[in-house]
Design a protein that fits this description.
By secondary structure, the chain is mainly alpha-helical. The protein contains four helices and four strands. The strands form two sheets. Strands 1-4 form a two-stranded antiparallel ribbon. It has a two-stranded antiparallel sheet with strand order 2-3. Strand 2 and strand 3 form a beta hairpin. Helix 1 runs antiparallel to helix 2. The protein is flat and about 65 Å long. The protein starts with a strand and ends with a helix.
Length: 161
Amino acid sequence: MASNFTASKVDTNGIKTSALEKAPSVAAPDDYRPSPDEPFMNERQQAYFREKLLKWKEAILIESRGTLAQLRQESLKEADLTDRASSETDWSIELRTRDRQRKLISKIDAALRRIDEGEYGYCEVTGEPISLARLEARPIATMTIEAQEKHERHEKVSREE
């Protein structure tokens, strides 16, 4: 019997290229787009969003590997102090971007776990379905737009106090 899980791999840079993820039992066709006319978060929709999340994660990991390779090859060799400062600033920005993407990968992994647990697409605050348009635009969303706006208003008030 074939396993329905994919194994984790760590590349030569020490980056995990895939988490232990459940393989979809239904594949979404390439031209498929979720529709409000079908049952919410049916197997096709789950497969579609799983694939979307995995592709996004893989693109981030590929970009990250490129940055690591470039860092290893191009150490700061500029003799001119101005050039060196400029390079250090560029690398600092690049590394901050990679850090944000690292955090994004953990959100992608959390969304994949929610798919496995049957909770994906439902607001963690209200339990209502998150609109397909919102999930299409931000597949890691955990709240409906209304719940997110309320959360952000509350957060703003808390910071001001």
